[in-house]
Design goal:
Helix content is 33%, strand content 0%. With 48 residues, the protein is mainly alpha-helical. The protein has a domain at 1-32: Erythroid Transcription Factor GATA-1, subunit A (Erythroid Transcription Factor GATA-1, Chain A).
């Protein structure tokens, strides 16, 4: 696959691959690891 600015589903090859990836994030199969001792963590505690 050649990536071009006009590639509709970039960075994915197709809508199907895009939806599969979205589903994995929604099901929490993928996540971004938290940084322990983050300076903002204490500011967010109790606000959710």
């Amino acid at each position: 696959m050649i990536w071009k600015p006009e590639s509709k589903y970039r960075p994915f090859c197709s809508e199907r691959c895009q939806l599969i990836d979205l589903g994995e994030w929604a099901n929490e199969e993928k996540r971004i690891a938290a940084v322990e001792n983050d300076v903002m963590t204490s500011d967010l505690e109790g606000h959710y």
